[in-house]
Amino acid sequence: MDKPGLRLCGWLILSAHLPQEWTNRLDDFQKIMFLKCIRPDKVTNAMQDFVSHNLGQKFIEPQTADLHLVFRDSSATTPLIFVLSVGTDPAADLYKFAEEMKFAKRLNTISLGQGQGPRAEAMMRAAMEKGQWVFFQNCHLSPSWMPTLERLVEQVDPDHVHKDFRLWLTSMPSPQFPVMILQNGSKMTVEPPRGIKANLLRSYVTLNDDFLTSCTGKVDEFKHLLLSLCLFHAVLLERRKFGPLGFNIPYEFTDGDLRICMSQLRMFLMEYTEIAYKVLKYTAGEINYGGRVTDDWDRRCVMNVLDDFYAPKVLDSNYCYDESQIYHQLPPTSEHPAYLAYVRSLPINDTPEIFGLHDNANITFAQNETYRTLNDLLELQPKTAAAGENRDVVIEKLAKDVLSRVPKPIPLAPVMEKYPVLYEQSMNTVLTQEIIRYNKLLNVIHTSLQELLKAMKGLVVLSQALEEMSKSLFNNSVPVMWSKAAYPSLKPLASWVTDLIQRVEFVQTWVDNGIPPIFWISGFFFPQAFLTGTLQNYARKFVVSIDTVSFGFQVMKQAVKDITHAPTDGCYIRGLYVEGARWDQAAHVLGESRPKELFTEMPVIWLQPEQNRQVPTSGIYMCPVYKTLTRAGTLSTTGHSTNFVFTIEVPSSKPQKYWIKRGVALICALNY
């Protein structure tokens, strides 16, 4: 293949010529499959071209909901339903439409929830008689009242109801929402704006010159900080698309959060002589936006991003928010049309630079989007045949292969005899606990595979659980039955099995040869127990309280093969990967990622227990360690995600804020 074909240079394979005869031998759909093998991050773009070419451009462009058109086709017996999506709230659009239709004073609104059912029913009956509009928000929050709403809609008599009556509803997709109402109603959905340009335009379209000049005495400062606030809102919304690099959890920030911050900004500027940046940051970052944030690391990220937007430097009319100088302040004399013109002049596609992210973040985002789409397609595929073979033959072959490769459970009694519970060596207890956990998983795998093979021969009944398991095996995904008994992992089945074999080998080598000189931290079922055991050994050795002992960190310059002995105190660990940056071996600090290099392996790290240790204030980055790339998990009693392991101080020549916005973290296991 020639170099342009190999590199693709970011172009789609559909528009670039494949070498030699392959251009004519493959149709457009087959070219997408070929592209998936080489550049999965470009598959979504290729799909868009394919749909546009075969169905039309309108099928890949977001369609705007025109309430005038919807209302024109509605009637008193036809509910109008907004299907909500993350980050959208059609309430403001409906209020504006009601004013245009002279119905603002005849619009009755209620947000459904516990105890609101009787009020909503009375409101709807009164509106049907008087010819008013009724707006029931968030129907998904009141599932118990949905049968009553269905009955009320069924009872609407077209001969007796006022012709001006309209029922407006909003709901997230919910199985409790009445199907009858969906079938008889007019359904609309408002997609959240995509990109900083669209979000800024949405924010400024609702403003006017009266509002921009309403902050008496500090009009110029208000205009500058208002633009800064709107840009901050857009950055937070768009960071979500980068997945864990943006935020561990995709929060539902809304236009309501922005409107509250706007009001507070105006109020605090008018009440304080000096600009109270500390108050502004606290109300916006900790309360309004931070009130939605449940992860401590995400809160740290929000506050560091906000530092760039609520600061004295943004009052400079020449200030730029990015190095490319695309996003910048406007002169204080600018009026509302000038702000709209500026926003419309911005590029449609955002560079990761404005978010503080590396260019590789776009590749991560595009890959994740591709995998989500392909997973949805996989769920829709027929279950009859695969590559000319019967589906059952494929599953049986795979089940026998996994059964032959996955090791049997490790006998526990000999291990407990060889490594008894000792006061001075907590690692014996850690080893025993690890074996118990892995044995439970190995038993589930062997038992379920044997049952499945028997069921496929007709010797036992094929249960629902076994049917789901066979479906997962066929799709190269880990069966739910196994993942419930397993450690967190995002790997597909083939890689997962290989990883499991390596983990069991790590434990077996420990059993056979004693405590290893370097611990493979990714190989632990529950790494937190290992870390606690290391601290416990140190505390018992020096007879100090374990509460006063914490880890110091030293990134080793030696390779894994050169380290043959464990340290006197603490332990060596390996198996961590850096996401969002790389380890610069020459400078011995965190460095910028290389283009298209999403993950790099971290060298061996020495965990050094110390008593009453003082954390360095500079020269390090407090880097969180996670088990998988999703980073999200359920919140534990410690306030951290169950996916979170611990924090490592990684040497850095840049301030922490730089890597925080980059979303840099250490990962125990990748997704391939």
Automatic annotation (TrEMBL):
GO MF terms held by the record: dynein intermediate chain binding; dynein light intermediate chain binding; minus-end-directed microtubule motor activity
InterPro entries noted in UniProt: AAA_lid_11, AAA_lid_11_sf, DHC, Dynein_C, Dynein_C_barrel, Dynein_heavy_D6_P-loop, P-loop_NTPase
Top-level taxonomic group: Eukaryota
Any one of the GO CC terms: dynein complex
Dynein heavy chain AAA lid domain ranges (all copies): 222-361
PANTHER family linked to this entry: DYNEIN AXONEMAL HEAVY CHAIN 1, DYNEIN HEAVY CHAIN 6, AXONEMAL-LIKE-RELATED
The protein, known as: Uncharacterized protein
Domain (Dynein heavy chain C-terminal): residue spans on this chain: 367-668
GO biological process: microtubule-based movement
Pfam family name, one: Dynein_heavy
Occurrences of domain Dynein heavy chain region D6 P-loop (ranges): 76-189
